[in-house]
Amino acid sequence: MAERAHRRRLAAAAVVALCTLVLAVAIWVDVQARTRTRTEVATLAGADSQLITLQRDVIAAAQANGAQTTRRDELTLSMAMTLEQLAGTNAELSTSKQNAYLQGVSISTLQTCFGGIHNALTAIKSGDNTAAARDVDAVSGPCTQLAGGTSTGLVYPFDFPDPDVILSGTTYYAYATNSVAGNIQIIESTDLAHWTALGNALPKLPSWASADFTWAPSVALIGGTYHLYYAVDPTGSTDECISVATAGQPQGPFSDTSSAPLECQNALGGSIDPSVFVAADGTPYLQWKSGGPGSSMIWSQQLAPSGTAFAPASSPTVLLTPDQPWEAGTVEAPDLVEAGGHYDLFFSGNDWNSADYAVGVATCSGPLGPCADASPTPILAAGNGVSGPGGESVFADTSGSFWIAFDAWVPGAVGSPNSRGLYLRRIDLSRSVPAVGGPVASSGTAAG
């Protein structure tokens, strides 16, 4: 019995480590990977070598006759040791739950996911980041299954922080912080369940901006042109600023020809997490966050009709400051939504690099406030297979129903350098405090 319990714990650790590796792959698939330190390069080379060995084990297991279950158990134990070295995790999960899930993982699924990861790593080493992104994208389905499937709302298992989702025609586009495909990642879907990587939405930064520091995109159609607002560090500065790029189509490529940031607020510690809101009358507004823990604030200001500058004579207005215990002094990642004649300001609070990160909501009298917390507790927090959910984006589907997109850590693999996948769940905006519902299922409808 003790030996069996020991094996179950190792199996659980293997699944956790596997999830960690899958979700961390996008960190390796970075367009600037060649500029990383010698230590990181050495780590990547070691990971590549160990993945090749593991892939051979998987193939051998698939070819074994008559003892597949035993071989899978042996392979699981090998994965526990190998992936613990790569991912640096020794987390504990529910043994019974993980054991039940592990029995449904086939050898071919393991082989497919690891094969794609190995190919992506090989492409990185040869300098072909486009191929690396394609290789990762090709195994999204199997790797999603290994990371827990769609029961948690996971729809894209690779690093996709600070997501923003829009609907254009009948196609959904999701944008995210720099990682797998460059400055601003972009993926698309027609059913919310199956997503395909399109590459880098912002292939070139303005001359004043630093590479590798592009975060939290927000996209909207303003005056017939798509505008992408994003945070970036100016060269020689560590204060985040906000800039804007434009394109004639939602998939880009977006172009930023600015000579300076749109907003910085250096005296307040910088500006980050831009989010664009277009009112029913077509007037655009920009929300964003300034400051750090204990001094953070969420702002709003009207934009000019062009969307590339603030409206003349306008000034920024504070919408929200942290005033609830769960926020731990931080409010950020604003997303303003108008539904049913009222305004809901969704935001993230607490430490983004922890399991305590969560999503709250405030009610506002208009795009410029005032706003007030609608609930003393988060509307979306750790649980149901996710840890530290945040970076939310609320959007309507083709039928007019609302969804909330967010990133989250895998339980037991919380914090950098672990990765955050893209999750989708339904949200009911008809209540005084919006309620988050079930995840998207394989058909694009709510599960359960």
Walk me through the topology.
Elements: H1 2-28, H2 38-63, H3 68-87, H4 95-102, H5 107-125, H6 129-138, H7 140-146, E1 154-156, E2 164-168, E3 171-176, E4 185-189, E5 196-200, E6 209-222, E7 225-234, E8 241-247, E9 271-278, E10 284-290, E11 297-302, E12 317-320, E13 331-339, E14 342-349, E15 358-364, E16 371-373, E17 387-396, E18 402-409, E19 421-428, E20 435-439
Helix pairs in contact: 1-3, 1-4, 2-3, 2-5, 5-6, 5-7
Description:
This protein has 448 residues and is of the alpha+beta class. It has two domains: 2-147, no CATH class; 152-439, Tachylectin-2, Chain A. Helix content is 26%, strand content 31%. The chain is built from seven helices and 20 strands. The strands form five sheets. Strands 1, 17, 18, 19 and 20 form a five-stranded antiparallel beta sheet that branches. The protein is globular. The two termini are 35 Å apart.
Task: Give the total of beta strands.
Answer: 20
Note the main sheet.
Answer: 5 strands, antiparallel
| First-last Cα distance | 35 Å
Shape: globular
**Helical amount:** 25-40%
Element order: H for helix, E for strand: HHHHHHHEEEEEEEEEEEEEEEEEEEE
In terms of per-residue confidence, which ranges show pLDDT below 50 for 5 or more consecutive residues? 1-104, 442-448
The value of Rg in angstroms is: 22 Å
Number of domains: 2
Kindly estimate the percentage of residues that lie in beta strands according to DSSP: 25-35%
CATH class of the largest domain: Mainly Beta
CATH superfamily of the largest domain: Glycosyl hydrolase domain, family 43
The third-level CATH topology of the largest domain is: Tachylectin-2, Chain A
**Helix and strand composition category:** alpha+beta
| Overall pLDDT | 78
In DSSP terms, counting alpha (H) and pi (I) runs of 4 or more, how many helices?
7
